[in-house]
UniProtKB/TrEMBL annotation:
It comes from Vitreoscilla filiformis. One of its GO terms (cellular component) is cytosol. Phosphorylation of dTMP to form dTDP in both de novo and salvage pathways of dTTP synthesis. This is Thymidylate kinase. Belongs to the thymidylate kinase family. It catalyses: dTMP + ATP = dTDP + ADP. Its EC number is 2.7.4.9. Residues 9-194 form the Thymidylate kinase-like domain. The keyword Transit peptide does not apply.
């Protein structure tokens, strides 16, 4: 049986990551892989219900962190771990790097507390590879404005998204063996080519 692989897609809102997950899944399926596409917060009925609250209700940074980790626990237990145990490739739209970037760097919440929650919830599980779609906050804001009405997080100002982006940069610098940085200011086709190239060497 193939070894399961856990691949996460990260970036500030509007960076373009969601646009490329399905193409990545198709390319992997064409290689004979079984693929599970999922997202955070979300991926289970409970976690999707928490997502709805998270994106719509006002709350402080600790409540945000507790909600995303509660959703993550259910998601790991019910979807991610079983899929990896079956040898599937799990493509996940956001994971704990988002918590560190948004709640940690964006909100200024204590990174050590987040790391403790991470240890409790994940029991050592980490992504095998993380594709970080990097764009300036101004570019992402223009893409979002052209695409949809903003949710609670997307109503934050450019300074917030600058801090979140800096958070992703810090995470990428701290774990260069796991992170692949994608220049997401490039055209859709160029980004897609780069994404597919990063998924060619996933191993057996
Ligand atoms: N490389 C690109 N060039 C121009 N427009 C793009 C590019 N990538 C994505 N877009 C457009 O930007 C918008 C946001 O893309 P997408 O929803 O994939 O971003 P996202 O990073 O998943 O955002 P979120 O995390 O908030 O859901 C969409 O309208 C999409 O068509
Ligand atoms: C996992 C996670 C997510 N967020 C934020 C990031 C986005 O603003 C939304 C999710 O919406 P998307 O359209 O699916 O990107 O939630 C967060 O703040 N912390 C997290 O851990």
């Amino acid at each position: 049986m193939p070894v399961g692989r856990f691949i996460t897609f990260e970036g500030i809102d509007g960076a373009g990551k969601s646009s490329h997950i399905e193409a990545a899944a198709e390319a992997l399926r064409a290689q004979g892989r079984s693929v599970c596409c999922t997202r955070e917060p979300g991926g289970t009925a409970l976690a999707e219900a928490l997502r709805e609250l998270f994106l719509s209700r006002e709350m402080d940074a600790l409540t945000e962190a507790l909600l995303v980790f509660a959703a993550r626990r259910d998601h790991l237990r019910c979807v991610i771990e079983p899929a990896l145990a079956q040898g599937q490739v799990v493509l996940c739209d956001r994971f704990t790097d988002a918590t560190m970037a948004y709640q940690g760097f964006g909100r200024g919440f204590d990174l050590n507390v987040l790391a403790q929650l991470e240890a409790w919830v994940q029991a050592g599980r980490q992504p095998d590879r993380t594709l970080w779609f990097d764009v300036p906050a101004t570019v992402a804001a223009a893409r979002r404005a052209a695409a949809r009405a903003p949710d609670r997080l997307e109503r934050e100002d450019l300074a917030f998204f600058d801090r979140v982006r800096a958070g992703y940069a810090a995470r990428a610098e701290a774990a260069p063996q796991r992170f692949v940085t994608i220049d997401a200011t490039a055209s859709m086709d160029a980004v897609r080519t780069r994404v597919l190239a990063t998924l060619h060497d996933l191993g057996p």
